[in-house]
Amino acid sequence: MKKLLLLLIIPLFLTGCYDYQELNNRAIIAGVAIDYEEDAFHIDLEILNNKKSSNQEEESSKTYYVKGSGPTLDKAFQDCHSRLSKEPYYSHLKILILGEEVAKEKLSEVLDYMIRDAAIRNIFLPVLAKGSKASEILETTTTENPIVSTSIQSMIENNKTNDSISILKDFEEFTSEIIDPYRDGYINTISKDEDTLLLSGIAAFHEYEFSFFLDTEEAITFNTLNNDSTNYYINIPCENKKEKYITIKLYQNDGTSFEFQENNITVQSKLNASIIEDSCHYDFRKPDTYNKLANLAKPLIEEEYQNVINKLKEEKTDILGISDQYYKKYRTPLDSWYTWNFAYGIEVNINKNGLIFEVKENE
Length: 363
What we know:
The structure is a single chain. 36% of the residues lie in helices and 31% in strands. The chain is an alpha/beta fold. Strands 1, 2, 3, 4, 5, 6, 7, 8 and 9 form a 9-stranded mixed sheet that branches. Strands 10-11-12-13 form a 4-stranded mixed sheet, with helices on both faces. Residues 1-10, 15-21 and 359-363 have low confidence and may be disordered.
């Protein structure tokens, strides 16, 4: 019995050693940047440095980069791989950064290549480089963030919880949107400010081509319309002091929905709110104060909704999936949604949680 138990345990140790040796013989790719210029694809790979060295400078470098180019994506990746001394390993891929020219001209080729490659798991996050080459974004390392791909992934995940600029969407979901005849795709954008990377909004696509950018404020409004927002702030000007504001923080209640009538679409949005900062010195002991603030907030929210929807209508880009919702309800296509009129039914419920009342001594 003891001999049998020993025979069962030994393979476990052998397997562990085998996996360890195999991992050391692989180039673990964390990020891929793809640019397109002068009729060629340019690939930049961010590779985790698992090489042990007594050299302090080498040990401080968490990653290294390999570049390649070619007239096709396959040739460009082959060029990269030919420069590696190890087998390329894409199972830990975190980020795919697309250059603007790729997004405008070559998106279908990128989607086709990445989906067909069995070695690539499609759970990585696609982003669009705004104002810089994709390779420049991928190589913006700092002491605080030595692995750029992991840094961008964390930035997107944390911001989704905090400021609601970003969206959590993997490559497979983005591809599904692009090929869906009833909706359009969108992804996060990353820009560069000197040596700092910033979330800069959303890139919208129509079919297989980049369409336009939503800036950070528009992205927050869009995410609220799309039921994908956790925090949404509105500054309401004081009635007697227009240069000062009261800030309220909005939360999704029952979410936003679209109701269809003939040539009209009503945007129904129910939002809860709490007061974050008050420079107006309202008397929050009076129930009427909350109704007044809700009435002041509604037109401000409606204006922001209208600005985003007008942008989508002008570009005829349906990243809100209005056609999809219409089709699911009526089973007929709605190709001309952008010609319809939009109305807004916005409900804002402001609660009293966390308020500190100012009480004078003689009261």
